[in-house]
Amino acid sequence: MAIFQITRDTPLPADEAWRRLTTWERHGDVAPLTRITVRTPPPTHVGTVFVARSALGPVGFDDVMEVVEWCPPDGTAPGRLRLEKRGTFVTGWAEIEVYPAADRGSAVVWREDLRVRWLPALCDGVLSSVARRMFGRAADRLIAAGPAPR
Fold first, then answer.
1. Which of 24, 5, 36, 10 is nearest to 133 (CA)?
2. Are strands 34-38 and 90-100 parallel, antiparallel or unpaired?
3. pTM for the predicted model, two decimal places
4. CA distance 137 to 104
5. Superfamily name and number for 2-144
6. Which InterPro entries does the entry link to (predicted)?
């Protein structure tokens, strides 16, 4: 299992950072060769399912995710969500927490346990390192992007 963590500080208020990180379709805009399809009607809630389809031409895989915990930030209370990866190729979980900062802005903590079937445990260190960079860039782009739709 390749476990990694990303931490970011942002001048955005916690609720706006949360919106930008949890508008699932936007993840396809920042992840190379990936398209996101949300299978359940909005708004996001426990039970929401979405699929990240990563492909190059006809070769690809689906990363199926289900929201199993959903608690948006509220005032000074942090937000927290947990996704379970339910695909046949990529499994594991992801957690995103958004903490309002005492002075201004917010802090984002993104933790993930990424498992790729048939990839030996010997590769976990490399997978974790690559995933940390890739998901870190995605988080930076999601946070920096224009306002999320309401």
1. 5
2. unpaired
3. 0.91
4. 23
5. START domain (3.30.530.20)
6. START-like_dom_sf (IPR023393)
